[in-house]
Amino acid sequence: MEVDRKKHERQTVRQAFGLTILKAADRRIRQLKGAHAPSLHGHKLWSSSWAIMDYLAEQGLPRGARVLDVGCGWGLAGIFCARHFEARVTGVDADPEVFPYLRLHAALNGVQVQTRQCEFEALQAQDLSGYEVMLGADICFWDELTSPLLALIGRALEAGIQQIIVADPGRPPFMALADRCVAQLGAEVKSWECDEPVRVRAELLIAGTLPVVAT
């Protein structure tokens, strides 16, 4: 029975970046899907989250930083920040049906993440002020999201957010956003590859810089 249990866990539970992450076949995820059906592509963990985690593992974050994870979905990038850097994280998503998946993973990894239902356009300066970092993984997948995200990134920088990281495989709407952020906001784009837990190639749009983190 113990061998069967361990085999089942290998099939349904993933360990990556120091986190416990449930696969779609896990009983707990299946139960959540019976009660909560995300409508805006929040039905799984999207792979660009791995690139953000890998980048932050290399760069680091100031301990206790306030992090805003926009379009958070299951919230793994923010949970990574809370787990490894004691970050105070708020996950923001237009679809509240993703939050039970976020809370489940936060509990599995021994952290707390605040949640807020909100669309990109509704996040104003007072909502952004006080955060040091804003993250977003796979959030620019439609053309109509490009302008709202450009405006959001501009507001975030004006509100004092020190660094913004948006990751994507390189979809055309994201690349249009990246071009505009580079031209208008002085952002940069980095191609990023990581091998944990699967091989991922992503483009990272990075606006702003954080103070050097001592290692």
Folded structure, characterized:
By secondary structure, this protein is an alpha/beta fold. It has one domain: Vaccinia Virus protein VP39 (Rossmann fold). It is 39% helix and 24% strand. The protein is built from 8 helices and 9 strands. A 7-stranded mixed β-sheet has the order 5-4-3-6-7-9-8, with helices on both faces. Strand 6 (133-137), helix 7 and strand 7 (163-168) form a beta-alpha-beta unit. Helix 3 (48-59) runs parallel beside helix 4 and helix 7 runs parallel beside helix 8. The longest helix is centred in the C-terminal third of the chain and has 14 residues, at 172-185.
Task: Describe the protein's topology.
Elements: H1 2-12, E1 13-16, E2 19-22, H2 27-35, H3 48-59, E3 66-70, H4 76-85, E4 88-93, H5 99-108, E5 113-117, H6 125-128, E6 133-137, H7 146-158, E7 163-168, H8 172-185, E8 188-194, E9 200-208
Parallel strand pairs: 3-4, 3-6, 4-5, 6-7
Antiparallel strand pairs: 1-2, 7-9, 8-9
Helix pairs in contact: 3-4, 7-8
